[in-house]
Amino acid sequence: MTSNEIRQTFLDFFASKGHTIVPSAPMVVKNDPTLMFTNAGMNQFKDWFLGNEPAKYNRVADSQKCLRVSGKHNDLEEVGHDTYHHTMFEMLGNWSFGDYFKKEAIQWGWELLTEVFKLDKNRLYATVFEGSESDGVPMDEEARQEWLKYLPESHIILGNKHDNFWEMGDTGPCGPCSEIHIDLRSDEERAKVDGVTLVNQGHHLVIEIWNLVFMQFNRKANGSLEPLPAMHVDTGMGFERLCMALQGKQSNYDTDVFTGMIGAISDLSGKKYEPDNEIGVAMRVIADHIRAISFSIADGQLPSNVKAGYVIRRILRRAVRYGYTFLGFKEPFLCRLVPNLVAQMGNAFPELVKQSELIIRVIKEEEEAFLRTLDKGIKLMDNIMAKSAATKKISGVDAFTLYDTYGFPIDLSELIARENGYTIDLDAFNVELEKQKQRARNATAIEAGDWMSVGPDAVTEFVGYDTMTADVNIVRYRTVKAKNKEQIQLVFDKTPFYGEMGGEVGDSGWISSGDEKIAIINTIKENGLPIHIAERLPEDLRATFKAQVDVERRICIQNNHSATHLLHAALRHVLGTHVEQKGSFVGPESFRFDFSHYEKMSHDQINEVERLVNKLIRANAPLQEYRDVPIEEARGMGAMALFGEKYGNSVRVIKFGDSIELCGGCHAPATGAIGYFRIISESAIAAGVRRIEATTGLRAEIMVDNMEETISAIREMCNNAPDLLTAVRKTIESNESYRKAMEAVQQERAVNIKNSVKATAQEVDGITIMTLRECLSMELARNVAFLLHGETKASAFIAAFESDDNKPCLVLMYTDDLVAQGKDAGKDIREAAKAIQGGGGGQKFLATAGGKNVDGLSEATEVLLKLATGK
Prior knowledge:
The chain is of the alpha+beta class.
């Protein structure tokens, strides 16, 4: 069976068992502060497991694209070196929400693997939770009895809490799990060593292929367990591992999931794929990483230096590094592999097809930037090795600076060091690395207490589309400590406060009861649950409170949000229908709007977009809102869906005139309420992605007022000239002519100084020494040095003087013939700069230095004379 056939067979099987087949959620998680990437099939169903919203279906199955490279599931450094670790992978899964449990999950798992996929029953093993005395959980006898219907007792293995008790996180739903393992070794090997001894022992051919999780408990913040009101099933089967088993391979990379891409890499590099050498590792790394990079970009996550974007950049740079080091790629190559990926996986994941041009452009730009980094890093390594020549040992601090500041990989530093007979103090490097990690952990550390129930548990009803005030009751609360500050988090039975989501910031305001009034500082969403951050805990938790949104702030936010829709429509009208939203941030003062476009907008285009948006505002088009519209009906209305966003079966449609979008945010009642729109800036944030920053209403008026005040001030400076542009242009032209005249004077002065220096030169052992003790500026001294360099042979020029701003300055020049004999101005001036308490550097023929100690100039001159003459 091909991989595509295997995926479809799985989905068809569970459809026949009454499961609803749902599409994969985006791999990049947008509205969950606890996750950057989907790292398990159950992520998109977290709200159902947590009870934050009712499950839409009792039975579900899908193939979910996942990414595991950071946090608890950190597999990145193992990818490529073994046969089964990946960054991006597919997770086949089936779920039950309060419907079937262990019996059916085990029965259907066995049926699919042995009767449909025809796997050898004798090669299968099942693990069962052995129990935990500390948690008060007994051995999972129910699962064990079910497995005895299909497997001999010798193939049922008891597993500990680490292997056979699955937890969503430190708190939340959890329960025992039962793993299905397969032994893919040859019959001869199986005869020698019993497979049961190799389960969960890290053997690359005795592997887990399916994990059946039985969610029975809720883990509280104090570590104790309590039974869940309804029990669920959550299963996950590694698609790539299943393909390996069914296609009779001994490596995931030998299946048709990867062989096509590895073949393309081999053709591109001109090197043959050999699994057991460094070339094979490099090709596996690249074949894996191109999938993770491409799917992330398609889902809306661009490489960057922060959060999820940084993870994607790390993956991309790791792939480039392996291609650069082991396959000889010195030019962008990952971008040339994207069409192969699209051809292979585009049918199952149409977002790859739709976004292929953007993916190629972004990857190409990232590759070019990192190749420049590698080139710079190699030059920096040369300097570090020169500094460490005496010991042949590079300090861990220097290696970490290369890694942390310049993005130069430590293993590449090791390779260069080794090739030149150097070592790196890796222990010291790891100390610096651990310090950095601890700083990051401290910055993000959050301690959350258990949720304390107040009233009957209920799914929070959001009423904020229709009103900015409501009578609410507290359902539960908890205390959260972050950065040594305590916050109170409240959950209401209903709320007018919008929780931060979809780029729109959360509402603030207050709640009041009687004489008590408590500020709501912010509203966030966590696992779909609206959480209100309060300044303190109310005195009477069971009181009914009046919740009031900060109306003025909300109006500014919703006006800006509606303006993003008008801007999107205007951009598509002016630039073309290739324009698609790639991200946004909507606040009360301004907003950002990221969109796909491949060149800088012209001044005329920006003006046209502004005029078009303001025309739409003046039209005062009313808000037309459609709630709970079936997704297909919404698309039929022409509503634009954004790639990388997760939509349910029912959606909300927002329409202003010809602008129709799927949106869950807050909006103006009519476009006229926006008032006025101005673009603040337009810039590039990635290849093929532009960003507009803009503002509306009063702040747009203030922006124009400030512009007019600036123009008035310039007009006054130009003596209130009637034609301001002409006056400014004449001033600039005059300044340019004065600048050129000054340059001529400076050049003439440099020639005079050069002649004077040559006239007073002295010869020491065949080297002409020329010195300069007085000069106005470093620039003038450099000009003299350049003139002397072009006119003399076997000469050294030393300038040591106090500049017109009272700073000590040094300049050293060697002629090319002296450089050829081993002279190095950069190295020598660094030594002399110590005398003036400074530093410097430059090229071998010309270098400069500055410092703090003017009194050290004489000593610095002596040092330079000794280094130049060897005496």
